[in-house]
Protein 1
Amino acid sequence: MRRGSRQLKSILNYIDGQFVRGKREFADLNPADGSVIAQVAEADQGLVDDAVRAARKALRGEWGRWGIRERATRLHKVADAIETRFDCFVAAEVADTGKPVELASKLDVPRAAANFRVFADVIKTAGMESFQTETPDGKNALNYAVRKPLGVIGIITPWNLPLLLLTWKVAPALACGNTVVVKPSEETPATATLLAEVMKEAGIPDGVYNVVHGFGPNSAGEFLTQHPDVNAVTFTGESQTGAAIMKTVAASVKPVSFELGGKNAALVFADCDFEEAVNGISEAVFLNTGQVCLCTERVYVERAIFEKFVGALKRKAESLRVGSPLEKTTDLGPLISSQHREKVLSYFRLAREEGAEVVTGGGVPEFGNVLDKGFYVQPTIYTGLPESARCVKEEIFGPVCHVAPFDTEEEAVSMANDTKYGLAASIWTTNLKRGHRVAQQMNVGITWVNCWFLRDLRTPFGGTGLSGIGREGGMHSLNFYSELNNICIRL
């Protein structure tokens, strides 16, 4: 496979400690210029069967015999190995996603290492319930719970934060003693395979971590979720895909954990720290070119500061540098694909049709170089749409927000909660009582007050409504990836 005189990289499946080719391949594109950077081996039904079989076998091997302390030690070694190969992970993540190198260096790769360390430490200190029970005949019984692995976990991850969200699931699954079969997004296959090399280096036994590449329907994703020997499925991605997976696993009543889409709101009150709010909302809207499930697409601003805020956010958006992800001064890279760019641009067109006022953006930047072949859009702000508009109700997943005024706290809360999603919200106010009061009224999984994207990995994370099922983080992840077995002994 050659492109000119350059040998294309091959990205292979990883099954039972070996890198494996498939019968078919597909191209991995660089979103910054549309070039083919690798050929990816697609896993067919047979390879998915092999991966699940290897994972099942590993449960009965040395991995299944290791105790918590040994597993935790190995997970720390995985974290160390990620940091040793830090530059390799950054390069792979940037090439696959098009995100700025500074973002990948500060967020994605450090969080990947942190995920392994956090869950290695949480599992070592995780306690279980025990009760001394009085029996009807006046004697006693002891009830206590033990934690057992679920078995083979099917993990399906998205393209926007591929390494971060992969390790967010793999780390607690392995900490609990499970084995995993991972299906990364076909858009971003590189870091899942690179992590396989790290697993090998860290002494994780063969079959514990497996990777199958491919697509959803009639490909690796469907084969994995339908597999009878997969004990649980965890997925992060679009709500529609989550619904399809739920239908697939319903017949076998598998445990599922879904973190899905969002149409997140921010409420900006007149008493906010103005500069802090503008900077925070700008990051919440435009980070990773708006391709984060937690990004803000609806901004509600108290009318007294509405015009001033819109003007300041406009200046902030126009100061962002859109360009090559390899340049350290770049703030916004491309969208993930030409198809996703067309989706985002279709919403830009729809916003105008629905009567929006374009504050800034709404188009495609021009570079005059190879970046014009990439999948870029301008950072965009709209105002003037009714709350019933599709652009206010539907997730766009790009660098765009709609800003609307409100007059009362009750009105702001009502508009923020008027959505089928329920993932995240942010509140911007210097009134401490209001911050607590409004935050507790948000129908979402996580609410920030005077900040955004600040996470403690021990706390519950997830959404309501179309934003998902279940919670991840700390003990919540351990409880999903474990079978809790109560033992009752009559004394």
Note: The radius of gyration is 24 Å.
Protein 2
Amino acid sequence: MTFPQPFYKWRPHPWHGLEAGREVPKFVQAYIEITPFDLVKYEIDKVTGYLRVDRPQRSSSQPPTLYGFIPRTYCGNRVGALAKGCDQGDRDPLDVCVFSERPINRAEVIVNARVVGGLAAIDGGEADDKIVAVLENDSVWKHVETIEQLPKVLVERLRHYFATYKLVPGQSAPTMQVGETYGLEHALKVVQASLADYDEEYGQ
């Protein structure tokens, strides 16, 4: 039997086995871990590549977008150097939030997305940037070139989600500090830095 190319005998690891995108850093591929319908925080298991239940959300806050990561990225020293207030990334793949007009309620899917900006965030003293993107060829969002063109209320919801999704009742202060949004130019630098950090950490 002849199989199409590329053919994987086994499922490729979502972080290491998938491509970052067709034209990075602007056009990326996003592996989705969480949908706007999830009240549980899921996270990729770095060893097996399967989704693991990280924690049930303590609050009623839900992600306003698809939420996942860009394959073959790593937040190391280069990503950290681009963040104000720290010099080290969180040593995870680079997070990405993807706006879609049509509801997508399944996780563990791959979407093609176009980067439009980002959200600065520091978690426990480490850079934890959230790249903001729009679904490629989306009927509503395809005209958006930079985050400033998105409705302010949607960006506010995104900021509020990340400012609250790690809150624990009785905790004196949250570990997550959410900064300002940034535009396309800086977002492309962050994606490029995460690709370089990945190459340094894991090789070609």
Note: The chain is about 20% helix and 30% strand.
